[in-house]
Amino acid sequence: MDENLPVAVIGAGPIGLAAAAHLLERGLVPMIFEAGPSAGAAIEQWRHIRLFSPWRFNLDAAAVRLLEPTGWESPRLTALPYGGELVDNYLAPLAATPEIAARLQTGSKVVAVTRKGMDKTHVRDRDATPFTVRVEHTSGEVRDYTVSAVIDASGTWSTRNPLGTSGLPAIGEDRAAVRISSPLPDVSGRDRGSFAGRRVLVVGAGHSAANTLINLADLAKEEPETGILWAVRGASAEKVYGGGDADGLPARGQLGARLRRLVESGRIELHTSFGISSFTDSEHGLTVTSGDGRALVTDVVVPCTGFRPDLDMLRELRLNLDPAVEAPTELGPLIDPEFHSCGTVPPHGAKVLAHPEKDFYIVGMKSYGRAPTFLLATGYEQVRSVAAALAGDQVAADTVHLELPETGVCSSDAGTSCDVPAASSATEEIEEAGGCCGTPEPVLIGIPTGLAHGRSGG
Ligand SMILES: Cc1cc2nc3c(=O)[nH]c(=O)nc-3n(C[C@H](O)[C@H](O)[C@H](O)COP(=O)(O)OP(=O)(O)OC[C@H]3O[C@@H](n4cnc5c(N)ncnc54)[C@H](O)[C@@H]3O)c2cc1C
Q1: Ligand 1 and 380: CB distance under 6 A
Q2: Mutate which of 38, 137, 331, 418 for ligand 1 pocket (most atoms within 8 A of beta carbon)
Q3: Ligand 1 in contact with 185 (CB < 6 A)?
Q4: Worst-scoring range by mean pLDDT, 208-212, 258-262, 268-272?
Q5: Which superkingdom heads the taxonomic lineage of this protein's source (predicted)?
Q6: What's the CA-to-centroid distance between 14 and ligand 1, angstroms?
């Protein structure tokens, strides 16, 4: 690759910024494009959620080396930050360092990546040809940038899974968009006005759904007109309740038990085996119909159905993706949620993340495709390795090392996936007590998903 050209980094989330820090250490020049108004724009959307991993696993080493000379003070490494704290105390100062600030363009959405002057079918000199990155700026201007390599760290937050069954949007879902909230609204805080006193349907059976439901129940205490409906595809919500009062992780169990009580008391109206087939909007509200003809009427829908990667912008690149998970082919089987929980994913780097398109990498949350189990610590090791590979240091690129506690940073127990931990109001003031994952309480996780060792695990 042409080392005189910059390396494009798509996304200024934690992994994109860490990639930039590692590139700088390697003497390469990053050019960072961020679609949102500031770094950490996706996390900004869930700033009211507490992370389930303590600070020490949420900081990248190269990023810290950039921050330290600025007088930045490291947070207490054992504390569990909120999303907002991750932005305010880490990502924003990192984006403001002179090295990053000079190379970061916010309000700049990458819409396509290709090889300069050639489409996907052309092979001659392909590996040596620079990339073109097409960017839409908020000013309305669209520009093509020429770069030597591309690191796609754009996450999956902007592409939630559709609400319909079979992986497709339900009929009428697009037209109902105004009644569908973001995936993790702050129902009792910032977004309260959209939920107070209204009928709310929560769809999904993961941590996100569970925490939103509990927060809605808190809201309903103050705003009794608030109606809470909950639709799950499965025949029961047992796996969301977990072990209840007998749960091995007491705080997690309490949360599950609380949700069960809310359902049993009728405060939350649960609808099982409810696969959504259509949405019809009218002056009376949004009618949500299941495949077997049942209908629910609501004012707002909260979609807690997970995320998938946006692959459209990569259409002109030669990718090698796992057919099920949409992660790089070699990574897919390591993270397939059918078989793995987050603690069981081995560290990996450039080699596993490589595509037939030389010098192009998908990293971070997006590298996990549809699997929900990504951890920041894993991503930091990914980008350390990728930067080494781009700089030609194959030995460093191939030496992947990641010291996660045996049980993973997401849980001291299997039985959880890592995508969405407890919301603020659903947890007590929590801090990691002694040693990594030494305490199970960082409940972060709150609710078991049944992913003991993946969906099909025992
Ligand atoms: C609620 C929640 C809690 C989590 N808690 C933890 C935790 O405790 N510990 C842990 O290790 N992991 C946790 N994760 C998982 C994961 O670490 C986070 O999702 C993390 O934000 C992923 O970082 P990222 O940089 O890959 O992606 P993101 O943080 O999503 O950043 C991607 C960035 O790219 C930008 N972008 C998107 N598309 C484009 C485009 N086309 N052009 C330019 N920019 C674009 C976005 O605006 C965003 O700023 C959590 C995830 C969620 C959703």
Answers
A1: no
A2: 418
A3: no
A4: 208-212
A5: Bacteria
A6: 7
Q: Which helix (H) or strand (E) holds 260?
A: helix 250-264
Index of the ligand 1 atom closest to the CA of residue 49? 1
Question: Ligand 1 centroid vs 95 CA: distance in angstroms?
Answer: 15
CB neighbour list of residue 297: distance below 8 Å, 6 or more residues apart: 199, 284, 285, 286, 287, 288
In 113-152, which positions are buried (b, 16+ CB within 10 angstroms) versus exposed (e)?
bbbeeeeeeeeeeeeebbbbbbbbeeeeeeeebebbbbbb
201 alpha carbon – ligand 1 mean position (Å): 25
Measured CA to CA, the distance from residue 315 to residue 112 in angstroms comes to: 8
Alpha helices per DSSP H over 2-56: 14-25, 41-45
Q: From CA 57, how far away is CA 363, in angstroms rounded?
A: 17
Domains of the chain: 7-158+307-433 (3.50.50.60), 177-303 (3.50.50.60)
Token digits of residue 197: 């006193």
- Cα 436 to Cα 313: distance, rounded to the nearest angstrom: 38
Q: Which of 253, 251, 250, 234 is nearest to 242 (CA)?
A: 253
Whole-structure pTM over 0.85, yes or no?
yes
Helical packing angle, 250-264 and 207-222, nearest 10°: 60
**Which atom of ligand 1 lies closest to the CA of 15?**
25
The reply to whether ligand 1 has any atom less than 6 angstroms from the CB of 154 is yes
User: 236 alpha carbon to ligand 1 midpoint, in Å?
Assistant: 30
Please give the average per-residue pLDDT across 327-338, as a whole number. Answer: 86
Cross-strand bridge partners of residue 321:
328
Strand pairing class (360-362; 30-33) = unpaired
Confidence at residue 1, expressed as pLDDT on a 0 to 100 scale: 83
Tokens for 281, please give them. Answer: 């909007």
Q: What spacing in Å lies between the alpha carbon of 386 and ligand 1's midpoint?
A: 18
Nearby residues of 269 by Cβ (< 8 Å), 6 or more positions away: 227, 228, 229, 230
Q: Kindly give the distance from the C-alpha atom of residue 12 to the centroid of ligand 1, in angstroms, as a whole number.
A: 9
